Amino acid sequence: MSLIRIVTFNLQFGGCDGYGLGSAARLRTALPFLRSLDGDAYLLQEANHWQHLGKRRLHQARVALAVASAFLAKANKTTTGHAFHTAMLFGRRWNIVAEDSDRARYHHVLGWATVQLDDTAATWDIRNLHLDPFSPANRHNEVAPLQTLVGPGRLAALIGDANMLGINHPEPDWTPLPAHLRAAQLLPHTEAAADADRRAIRLLQNAGFVDVADRFGDQQPTGGFGPSDVPRRQDLFLLSPALAEAAVDY
Question: What is the pTM of this model?
Answer without folding.
Answer: 0.95
